[in-house]
Amino acid sequence: MTDAGIPIGFWRSVGASQNGFFLESFIDEIATTGKKDPYELRRHLLAKSPRHLAALETAAEKAGWGTPLPRTDFAALPW
User: Fold this and answer.
1) In the chain, which stretches have pLDDT less than 50?
2) Which pairs from 59-66 meet CB under 8 Å and 24+ separation?
3) What 8-state DSSP symbol labels residue 7?
4) CA–CA separation, 66 vs 8, rounded Å?
5) pTM (predicted TM-score)
């Protein structure tokens, strides 16, 4: 163990649960570096997995992926 200088705690799951976060973050970085849309890159990677592709497309649709984000007045936020 190394003292990272920041407080850490236990995950409320098995230790490997963080791997999904790391993997998806890395895919986002690959997409950004390659000047690709992260959603489109994932669609390409899942082309041969119809169930996973359908789940991705459903999530993107429900999230409104591809539509502009609403404007936010950051000065009005409480923080």
Assistant:
1) none
2) 65/39, 66/39
3) -
4) 35
5) 0.68
